[in-house]
Amino acid sequence: xxxxxxxxxxxxxxxxxxxxxxxxxPEGWQQGTFNGFRLSWDPTITARLRELHESGRVExxxxxxxxxxxxxxxxxxxxxxxxxxxxxRADTAPTGFLGSxxxxxxxxxxxxxxxxxxxEPDRRIVWIDDDLAEQxxxxxxxxxxxxxVLVVAPDLYVGLTHxxxxxxxxxx
Length: 172
What we know:
Elements: E1 9-12, E2 30-34, E3 37-41, H1 43-54, E4 59-63, H2 68-78, E5 85-87, H3 108-119, E6 125-128, H4 136-144, E7 149-152, H5 162-171
Parallel strand pairs: 1-4, 1-6, 4-5, 6-7
Antiparallel strand pairs: 2-3
């Protein structure tokens, strides 16, 4: 297993990545209600993420509006490890799914990702967030200047796919 400072960081969002709002669940998907929000996820996706983390190929860190609630409420039911580092917007408390950037002024996650990259300049970063596609104008210049950052932008209504995980594993 690589030392922590050598492992790439995987910044992980929840809504639109792990949780995909679907009317009809694909076979094998699970659902649960957390903080009054109904979440749906594919346990084979979360199992692969957990294996990437536990094998030492990446260090998963939460970057989600769920903030500490991702670890406290979602990790165990979704099959992810507990006790992961959590990045949060300085001026907010844990919320849950409010829809695409609802009420957000600016995109706080870009600032946090930039802080993580600056604090860990020798570590590669995988950033998975469905809002990355919408925020391309804001993130494009920074990402172009930082080829050690891989971004994956799942479709909100599909969530993270096995094909996207295959791309991540190939990049690692």
